[in-house]
Amino acid sequence: MKLFSKFVIHCALIAASLLLAGCEKSDIRYSETLDRNDLMVLPFPSWTPTGDAKVQPVDLSATTDTPVEVGVAGTPAEISPLYVVRLDDTHAALVTQVLPVDENNRPYDGHASSGMIGAYFFEQSAAGWRMVTRQDSVATSGVEGNIGRTSIVKLEEGHFAVTAEWGSCWQGYCGRWLVVVGLQGDLATLLNPGIALSVDNDGAHGACSALDHSAHAKEDATDGSGECLDIQSEWKFQGNHLQVLYNGRLSQLGTNGELLPTKKIRERTIYVATPGQLTLISGSVPIPEF
């Protein structure tokens, strides 16, 4: 009887082990819908839209100098779903904002603290939506713990772009930039890390204001601080073409420190977006480095 009992227990343990192994092998998570919060738990099973569970370990090695071993282990970051993009009938992408956090799970908000854009791709089957590709970090954008103003643009069938426009000022020099990420198939690609959109340095030397009061322009230029950079722009996508229209003025210094004649800026640049690339096909960016 004891032998029989041991045999039964042994068989039961084997059966339980096989059942557990089978469950582990078939433990593929699905989402019934494309709700952003439902999709988030596929790459991050413990994620919730509020509280500390919003902080998850992510691999930032693709966009930072994070060592490979740290990237694999994961860097804690606050993850927020931004957009769900239906690429076609059976494929979709989830775009996220990724903000690295401190020891108190608060996003770093220093002036040099950028965020990242992440992307996750899903395929539909009879069981639901299954994650097929994950990219925790595709692009870096923004400052002070904010990636900037974002949007989604359809370029053509099955090809979309995520844009993030951000700006900031440093010691009186202000600028804006446009980050563009392409979404196609099961891959997100950084198309441009930052197209310069504007510059304004009046807060540094008051040189642009001085140009508006020409009697003081020469006086302001004598110490090499009379350079005026004042250019703004508007941008828009038309299909897979990105147009940026620049307007403004430049009053730069010559080789001997003299103030050169002011140039009026009116420039149109056109880029074409193809899979994996954003190519400048017309015009040039008139904003100098600063």
Question: Would you mind describing this structure in some detail?
Answer:
- This is Lipoprotein.
- With 290 residues, the protein is an alpha+beta fold.
- Helix content is 17%, strand content 48%.
- The chain is built from six helices and 13 strands.
- The strands form two sheets. The protein has an eight-stranded antiparallel sheet.
List keywords for this structure.
Lipoprotein, 290 residues, 13 strands, signal, single chain, disordered N terminus, 6 helices
Topology:
Layout: H1 2-25, H2 36-40, E1 55-58, H3 68-73, E2 75-88, E3 91-100, E4 115-125, E5 128-141, E6 149-156, E7 159-170, E8 173-184, E9 187-200, H4 202-205, H5 207-211, H6 217-221, E10 228-238, E11 241-251, E12 263-274, E13 277-282
Antiparallel strand pairs: 1-2, 2-3, 3-4, 4-5, 6-7, 7-8, 8-9, 9-10, 10-11, 11-12, 12-13
Question: What does the main sheet amount to?
Answer: 8 strands, antiparallel
N-to-C order of helices and strands = HHEHEEEEEEEEHHHEEEE
Shape by Cα distribution:
globular
SS summary, helix count: 6
Beta-strand content: over 45%
Which bin fits the share of residues in helices? 10-25%
Radius of gyration from CA coordinates: 26 Å
Overall average pLDDT: 87
**Ends distance:** 88 Å
Show unreliable segments.
Answer: 1-27, 215-224
Q: Tally of extended strands? A: 13
Structural class: alpha+beta
Give the neighbour order of strands across the main sheet.
Answer: 6-7-8-9-10-11-12-13
Keywords: Signal
Signal peptide: 1-21
Protein name: Lipoprotein
